Amino acid sequence: MKIAIAVVAVLVVAGLVVLAALSSTPVIAVDPPVKAIGAATPVKVEVTDPYGVRRITATVEQNGARYAVFDQHAPARRISFMRLREAPHVVTIPVGKSKAPALHDGKARVVIEAQSNDFLGRTVTAGYDVDVVLEPPRLVVDGAQHYINQGGAELVTFTVSGDWAEAGVKVGPYTFRSFALPGRPANERFSLFAFNWDLPVDTVPRVYARNAAGTEAIGHFWYKVFPKPFRTRDLEINDAFLDKVVNQIDPSGTGDLLTRFLHINRDLRKQNNQTLSDLRLKTEERVLWNGLFLQLANSQVESHFADVRSYIYQGKKVDQQVHLGYDLAVTQHTPVVAANDGRVLWASDLGIYGNCIVLDHGYGLQSIYGHLSQIDVKPGDMVKKGQSMGRSGSTGLAGGDHLHFSMQVDGVQINPVEWFDAHWIHDRILSKLAPGAVPSKP
Q: Helix or strand or coil: residue 24?
């Protein structure tokens, strides 16, 4: 009997040792990092543990006081946990004064605690130093009439006060930065924004301001959107075209020509457009342009902005993409001139655009020149309106010699035709940047 009891005891001890050895330690991650909290700042917490999470708590510490703001439990699994493998547990916790009324502006610390749901139930703690920001931002938006062309651009001015960290304009899924009005205090601002071609015309553009804790104010302004028709067209492609463009753009690729072309037309197009969009981050915070923008002289328009193209191969539609620019043709290797004064941001190959130049004209306004056969400028060069920068060609995704010309506002490509009109530029843009063109202070 004593031997049996001893064996059982050994087995029990061995089992407990195994259960303890199998127990894990949870890992806490907060993404995005929390740096400030306000009334109810959402804090996204991810706890990774293969056996799940028994408990998650959140507290805020300030000046020696500790405030509980979140406590979530799950049934304990001390033995059965071994059969489980759980995905990371994600929870968004509202942290701030709404949960801890005694909080005030100043420094604080958010503490997240998580317990593993296994035999040992190990607990880990993660702390994050934060600023408590309780004052919301406030906005006063201009009283001007804003006439917006679908696919075009517009400018709104506003004054922001209170506690704020960023401000700009939201149009559907697109967000546009703001800049301080020239010669004015930093809180007197403007945003040059686009109304993208594919947005419903009833999309409402709004000014926003947000503080570091995520509290947001929204401002409205008078506007009218003019719908614009955009063409649809079939584009016949054949083996000769595929052989030319595919082997030029992707000379080391494998697979049949059509498959490689579709990869270029879809995936590489998306990557190249993202590269163009990211150049907005290199803009200068000043007006570099002077007057109207130039269209390539004596050019014939072969494709328009936002043409919806269906690619037809051997009688079947194989793809559809949107052409975000103008295709302008004159003669082979015609000089390509700067549409306006600006600084060269890009002067190199860019996939479907071939040899490409991008000019920055300030405040997020940029022009794009594609398919060039020759580039005569380099990044950092300052160029003047009408200055030759290279020559047209058929590099990239081009069937023949022409210039692909486009413009973008804070990374969103727009119809450039407005910028060929000096009156439009003065009335819709420059007049609002003039001294005194600012709404009243709150």
A: coil
Contacts of 194 (CB under 8 A, 6+ apart): 152, 153, 171, 174, 176, 408, 409, 410, 412, 414
> Is the Cα dihedral 393, 395, 397, 399 positive or negative?
positive
Query: Residues 291-320, buried b or exposed e (16+ Cβ, 10 A)?
Result: ebbbbbeebeeebebbbebebebeeeeebe
* E strand map for 278-424: 300-303, 307-313, 316-323, 326-329, 335-337, 342-349, 355-360, 365-372, 374-375, 382-383, 388-391, 403-409, 412-414
Distance CA 121, CA 94 (A): 25
* pLDDT value, residue 50: 84
Question: How far is Cα 324 from Cα 346, in angstroms, rounded to an integer?
Answer: 18
Separation between Cα atoms, residue 336 and residue 223, nearest integer Å? 36
Q: How far apart are CA 156 and CA 206, in angstroms?
A: 10
Helix (H) or strand (E) holding 247, with range, is: helix 239-249
Question: Regarding predicted confidence, which is higher, 82 or 399?
Answer: 399
Q: What is the pLDDT of residues 338-369, one digit of tens each?
A: 999 999 999 999 999 999 999 999 999 999 99
Tokens of 115: 């317990």
CA distance 276 to 412: 9
Rounded CA gap, 293 and 415, in Å? 12
Q: Quote the pLDDT of residue 441.
A: 41
Q: Indicate the pairing of strand 388-391 with strand 326-329.
A: unpaired
- The pLDDT tens digits of the residues spanning 141-196 come to 999 999 999 999 999 999 999 999 999 999 999 999 999 999 899 999 999 999 99
